[in-house]
Design a protein that fits this description.
binds flavin-adenine dinucleotide; 11-stranded mixed beta sheet; 12 helices; alpha+beta; 8-stranded mixed beta sheet
Length: 414
């Protein structure tokens, strides 16, 4: 029987970063996944490290909601069949979109967002993967003055936190990104965000670095986790493993092992799609572009220009329905010279989301020797390394670098 101090379940960016931070402190760690590191949600995202983020995505209001209900909106889609299960989440999400709740989120999450880019850069330096990092910020485009004006509160709060940004006109934006067509009136450049050109390779490089620190990566099904007299046991493809403590970092799959243990936290998923396109001629992008009114992003990746969609409210395991890509394509083609798609069909992933948009990071309620780190919503790539540091602080008895109370599972009354 193999023994380790800690088992980390889930080798997405969150679990891999936790495993690496623990290994750096001399803890003997096994990282278990049914697939290779970074191959699920952590593969398919937009690649933005959102150091600038203040507010969560708001529940759509009035006209936008009607357009979504009529299935006409590019920014969101939903499955009728899922509505009965996700209705409690949707109501709670709407309640959390009140101005004071959004401000609460900004305050609770600032300690994580403000360190996120630096934490990634440190891991990239030690894992030899800085070539994927671009510290050029990202740009949010506004086609109408009214859309731009809706950011007034965010800009005011950015000032309060000393976050840098530049408001640009069409020419100023095209000076930074000459391949964009002048179909927008304004943009905001947020230089304190960064982007990565291959999120999969970033997670893989952190996993490789974990291996050089005597970390062990195993293949196995997390649902085989069992409680023992003095810890936890899992049967992996490489044999049984006994550990003292376990960290659940299974992203959208975390409820699969938590609910049978009686830990029922109100996680929902916002599914999202991507597809790569070859740019036409010598067109290109230096940074991620958000077409705010159409709810999609253009991300320059090693594979091509990755178009990523907004949220689809559906059951995690329901068949993919990438209709948002069809709806947004006319706007995207009018904004950037997109050539042929690179893949035969789009990729789909599931953002693991709580209604208050905060992750759960901390001890599992009612299960000794179990820790939770999941529910990072739209920001799991951003927050993986900083979550790794926080979990390692808590598990090794170091004073946490920030107050972890806002991320406790108990906030749901568990
Ligand atoms: C379209 C889209 C765009 C996004 N853009 C961004 C962005 O620009 N910036 C950002 O910060 N975030 C972004 N996100 C969110 C981000 O990708 C996620 O929050 C993040 O990847 C979650 O990481 P994770 O490690 O928690 O989960 P995952 O990466 O999903 O990892 C979970 C792991 O658990 C494993 N697993 C599942 N079940 C089992 C089992 N039974 N046994 C063993 N292993 C199992 C899986 O194989 C997987 O490797 C985006 C998401 C989407 C969908």
């Amino acid at each position: 029987m193999a023994r380790r101090d800690v088992l980390v379940l889930g080798a997405g960016i969150v679990g891999t970063s936790i495993a690496l931070h623990l290994a750096k402190r001399g803890v003997s760690v096994a990282l278990v996944d049914k697939r290779g590191p970074g191959e699920e949600t952590s593969y398919g995202n937009t690649g933005v490290l959102e150091g600038n983020t203040l507010f969560p995505h708001a529940f759509p209001a009035n006209a936008a909601l009607l357009k979504i209900a009529l299935k006409l909106a590019p920014e969101a889609n939903y499955h009728f069949a899922a509505l009965p299960h996700i209705a409690p989440y949707l109501f709670a999400y709407r309640a959390n979109s009140a101005p004071e709740k959004r401000m609460e989120f900004a305050e609770a999450m600032r300690p994580l967002f403000s360190r996120a880019v630096a934490e990634h850069e440190a891991l990239m330096q030690e894992s030899g993967s800085t070539r994927y990092l671009r510290k050029e910020g990202w740009i949010k485009l506004y086609r109408s003055e009214s859309a731009f004006a809706s950011n007034a509160r965010e800009l005011e709060v950015a000032g309060k936190y000393g976050l840098r940004y530049s408001v640009l006109d069409t020419d100023g934006t095209r000076a930074l990104e000459p391949s964009l067509a002048p179909v927008f009136t304004r943009s905001i450049h947020w230089p304190e965000a960064a982007t990565v050109s291959n999120p999969l390779m970033v997670t893989r490089s952190y996993a490789a670095r974990f291996g050089t620190l005597a970390g062990v990566t195993l293949t196995g099904d997390a649902r085989k986790l069992r409680k023992t007299a003095d810890g936890w046991r899992i049967d992996t493809d490489e044999g049984a493993l006994d550990v003292k403590e376990v960290v659940v970092a299974l992203g959208p799959w975390s409820p699969d092992i938590l609910e049978p243990l009686g830990i029922k936290l109100p996680l929902a998923v916002k599914r999202g799609y991507h597809r790569h396109y070859a740019p036409k001629g010598n067109a290109g992008l230096t940074r991620v572009i958000v077409d705010t009114e159409n709810g999609y992003c253009l991300a320059p990746m090693e594979q091509g220009i990755r178009i990523t969609t907004g949220a689809e409210f559906a059951d995690r395991d329901a068949e993919p329905t990438p209709v948002q890509l069809d709806r947004l394509m006319p706007a995207a083609q009018g904004l950037f010279p997109l050539g042929d798609p690179v893949e035969a069909k789009p990729w789909m992933g599931s953002r693991p989301c709580f209604a208050d948009s905060r992750p759960v990071i901390g001890r599992a309620p009612g299960q000794s020797g179990m820790w939770l780190a999941y529910g990072h919503a739209h920001w799991g790539l951003t927050l993986g390394p900083v979550t790794g540091r926080l979990v390692a602080d808590m598990m090794t008895g170091t004073t946490p670098f920030c107050d972890p109370a806002p991320y406790r599972a108990e906030r749901f009354g568990a």
